[in-house]
Amino acid sequence: MKQPCPGDSSPPPQNCLHGCFSSHLLSSSDDPPPQNTAVSGLTSATLRRDFARTTVSTVFADAIFTDPNSLPSLQESFSNFIQAFSKYSQTYKIDRIRTDQYFHLALSNHTCLDYIGIGLYSYSQLLNYDPASYQIPSSLSESPFFSVSPTVGNLKERLLHDGGQETEFECAMKKRIMGFLKISEDDYSMVFTVNRTSAFRLVAESYPFQSNRRVLSVYDYESEAVDEMNRVSEKRGAKVSAAEFSWPRLRICSSKLRKMVTSGKKGSKKKGIFVFPLHSRVTGSRYPYLWLSVAQENGWHVMIDACALGPKDMDSFGLSIYHPDFMVCSFYKVFGENPSGFGCLFVKKSTVQVLESSTSSGMINLVAMNNPFSLPTSEMNRVLPESDETDSWRSFESIECRCLDHIDSLGLVMTSNRSRCLINWLASALLKLKHPKTVGGDSSSNSEKRLVKIYGPKVNFNRGPALAFDLFDQKGGRIEPLIVQKLAEHSSISLGLGFLRNIWFGEEYEDVKESVLEKRRNKTDPGVSVVTIALGFLANFEDVYRFWSFVGRFLDSEFVEKERCRYGVLEHKSREVL
Questions:
Q1: Number of CB atoms found within 10 A of residue 359's CB
Q2: Which residue, 393, 388, 402, 458, is CA-closest to 143?
Q3: How far apart are CA 444 and CA 285, in angstroms?
Q4: Sheet with 245-246, side-by-side order of all strands
Q5: Is residue 174 within a helix (H) or strand (E), and if so which, with residue range?
Q6: Smallest Cα–Cα separation from 184: which of 314, 295, 305?
Q7: How far apart are CA 64 and CA 132, in angstroms?
Q8: At a CB cut-off of 8 Å and minimum separation 6, what does 105 contact?
Q9: Nearest 10 degrees: CA dihedral of 476, 477, 482, 488?
Q10: Cα–Cα distance, 310 to 529 (Å, whole number)
């Protein structure tokens, strides 16, 4: 396991693979452009287009890889990565945190790319481990920090008497989370839920659908939480509808959505709930916040799904501007070790009054295990730099959530720059993988054929740290996503699976449309199945390179068959072309 470079204050050695390198010799072409302003005659939109163009032209410029043995080494790829994304050099503090606090990621040699969200604790905190000594305890005395106790109750009553029945631990945890998300206790009440799905169901069970009869959601993928909300809402008399997304970039069909949002008399009574994810946890698409204003102006209660946000994205959301009626987020315990946790449902206090009283399940109590309190002053000073920017939460020192502490110490710019660099390099590098030309046959066969097809945004300044894709063999047949996932597991890489939903196909994609409709009719597929990855704030270049080199192995026409024989993986049956 690599040890961090010595000295917290001095810059790390040049060209260290783990984010430790000097940045003064590198350009800064990936500086984030200003918002809604013109600089030297260039608009922010132009600068964002320049970002995509520069990335594509710099990442393995003019190179196409048709043989898995031709892929450049990790070190060579890292050098190319730094040429394209110089700002990554300013995120080395994250590598220090990963080495000190999450050393299990290196010890396990496992790459976690299968879930997204925010953790509460670090692995070293789980083991009561002192990173200063670099000594791993011989016997691991793991502490679960808290357990979850499900409870049945009245959501409205619990919100109205916010904090009345909570333990000291629950109050401290609530304050820490609301402080982390920049949510005011004067404006919002909060309850802990079993998970994200439970939070959606609680809203559906308490919302007054007798007078506000509609639910309109904006999701490009199958969501268990949304499906449950729709089921409960329809049972209570609501009319459910959804935005559509154009194939294959999966952009919102704006004219259709605007019509659904604005239908009816402007300024009339509330129409229902407008459920809006700030970005897609499957494709990484980010959606314009303008839709929130349009919905509110047209009489909707707005529900924000913030579960797929980056670790500090709430800092730039503008909660004080939009004031959503409901917001859902979730936290897990330890990244790469224990993804269990809980959901959080926030309800604007002025909205609580319109809810109906109902007895529901899905809320929980947090039960403290051992003693999560009393963070020593010396440890607090070590975790956080001396800066006026983290003083705002020092009143929450009574409970230690070390992962949240680390993220607060890093800030929005560093965490967002990190994920932007990694996900855009990966998107560009994946598109460089193509099957070799075939000899003879028709003219269309005399060119390289794609190995990877990305759905949603590709290289894009504003894209989120998630990506949805399919792999194809040399004949153009799609390799089943489940097979890709199983083979990745044998390479110690965890990938996710998802289903793209609510898709609008143009005339040029009629063949794809028919294939999808046939599956729906036969109830064999709820949507277009895809492989997904998600990058957490601790992801590093080695993680994305490892995944990229794994995908490159599919350039070997016999790879799937050899692995199937070796591990007994499901057969490669699918020949559909998307």
A1: 10
A2: 402
A3: 32
A4: 251-252, 245-246, 503-504
A5: helix 168-180
A6: 314
A7: 45
A8: 98, 112, 123, 336, 538
A9: -40
A10: 24
Tracing tokens 């959080």 back to the chain, one arrives at 344
List the structure tokens of 108.
């396990």
DSSP annotation of 57:
H
* CB 513 within 8 Å of CB 505: yes
Note down pLDDT in tens along the chain; length 578 residues: 333 343 343 344 334 554 443 322 223 333 333 333 333 445 667 777 788 888 988 999 989 999 999 999 999 999 999 999 998 999 999 999 999 999 999 888 899 999 888 999 999 888 765 555 545 554 444 556 888 999 999 999 999 987 667 888 899 999 999 999 999 999 999 999 999 999 999 999 999 999 999 999 999 999 999 999 999 999 999 999 999 999 989 999 999 999 999 987 655 667 999 999 989 999 999 999 999 999 999 999 999 999 988 888 888 887 888 899 999 999 999 998 877 899 999 999 999 999 999 999 999 999 887 654 444 434 444 444 444 447 433 333 468 899 999 999 999 999 999 999 999 999 999 999 999 986 555 545 556 799 999 999 999 999 999 999 999 999 999 999 999 999 999 999 999 999 999 999 888 787 777 777 776 666 655 678 999 999 999 999 999 999 999 999 999 999 998 888 877 755 544 434 44
DSSP string, 514-528: HHHHHHHHHTS-SSE
For 2, counting Cβ atoms within 10 Å of its Cβ (0-12 exposed, 13-18 middle, 19+ buried), the class is: middle
Token pair belonging to 263: 């239908």
Residue with tokens 């504003």: 462
What is the Cβ-side half-sphere exposure of residue 124, based on CA atoms within 13 angstroms? Answer: 20
The pair of structure tokens assigned to 442 is 């028709």
Q: Which residue has the tokens 């949304």?
A: 226
Report whether 313 contacts 181 (CB < 8 A): no
Token duo for residue 159: 């919100």
Residue 116: partners with Cβ closer than 8 Å, 6 or more residues away = 281, 307, 308, 465, 466, 534, 536
Q: Encoding tokens for residue 94?
A: 């994250």
Distance CA 65, CA 428 (A): 12
- CA gap 327, 329 in Å, rounded: 7
Distance between CA 499 and CA 511 in Å, rounded?
18
Q: Which two tokens stand for residue 57?
A: 């032209």
C-alpha neighbours within 13 Å on the C-beta side of residue 242? 17
Burial group, residue 77, by CB count within 10 angstroms (0-12, 13-18, 19+): buried
DSSP string, 442-510: SGGGSS-EESEEEES-SS-TT--SEEEEEEE-TTSPEEPHHHHHHHHHHTTEE-EEEEE-SEE--GGGH
Cα–Cα dist 286/463, whole Å: 6
